[in-house]
Amino acid sequence: MTNIGTEEIYQLEKYYRVSLINSLIGYRALNLLGTSSADGITNLCLISSVFHLGANPPLIGLVLRPQREHNDTLKNIISTGQYTLNNVLPYWYMQAHQTSASYPSGVSEFDACGIKKQYIKDFKAPFVGQSTVRIGLEFKEVIDIEINGTSIVIGEVVHILAEDGLIGADGTIDHGKAETMTVAGLDTYYLPQPIGQLAYAKPGVEPHILKTDVEF
Amino acid sequence: MTNIGTEEIYQLEKYYRVSLINSLIGYRALNLLGTSSADGITNLCLISSVFHLGANPPLIGLVLRPQREHNDTLKNIISTGQYTLNNVLPYWYMQAHQTSASYPSGVSEFDACGIKKQYIKDFKAPFVGQSTVRIGLEFKEVIDIEINGTSIVIGEVVHILAEDGLIGADGTIDHGKAETMTVAGLDTYYLPQPIGQLAYAKPGVEPHILKTDVEF
Fold first, then answer.
1. Do B188 and A95 touch (CB under 8 A)?
2. pTM for the full predicted model
């Protein structure tokens, strides 16, 4: 077994350390984050630090690094109050990855990377046409994390756009059928295979697989 | 396409809404969170709201719901200053799921669910013996989220315990080889299959798959 302690972590070569720390927690939610500036220039970036904050009210959190060059995203979220999260599929995941390149300000990653914009009535932020699960969010608050200069953005879910047949009888989205991908570390993409949907856990009751309409 | 707006979200049946909102963002990092009380009673809970906060310093965030019955976790983290995150494997994922049952205070989920404790020198929080990737963390700060009463806990990575051969030449952990699982929604478990590790994205350069030592 390898045991890497604090002192060794700080002595690791910079890119090795970044890759290692980014891959520690396992697979991460992979989404394209879509925004628009007040004057209509769209922006799209790949994000893997999205987390579920609560279901009532329906809240989602994400981490942004304001010191990065393409920091239009945070500015757009705060100025327009709207943004979208969109899942990534295997047949176009390389285009999604390409949105993380540092394009000059004023260039939309939608156009540069061949990603289709999709709009709905009364909502200004662009969704991704190629996605099968898309979330429209309303900005609620930003928390500045002093310890490393990042920002946690909290938003409320105000639109759920899912292709037909993806939401199961119990409300769970079938991400297998949706062909949603995931990422481990900075750049390694995976497609998950379902193993089992388990019954609600109770003390003294053996854990067991539910009979569901999810196709395993 | 299904379009569910704010008004419909609030009208959904409670458990349907919880399942839907929990499954929106896609696959999530799945870990067992291990703690110990000041007087040595261990606690273990399954958590899927862990997120990468930054690599330098190496920081990880996670969301806890203090209003839940088994809220010993937050108390333990704050009183001892130490906790662990451990990946979940297919051959014992049902036992991991079972830790989410509401055991009475004083009962350790390690014992109740057949999870092995593992300790290292000078670190009081218990790791999971059956895991292949284990993280030891030092508590840094807790942020109370007023909007829904949750707490975001931030910790610094001080130990990385990985089985031999899982850390690649570039520092990325091979979660395929580690047999790390992921979860979508509350209770549907998946095992990801690798699709591709992509080169660093640059404007004007076609996205492409790296030749790596990751076995695809």
1. no
2. 0.95
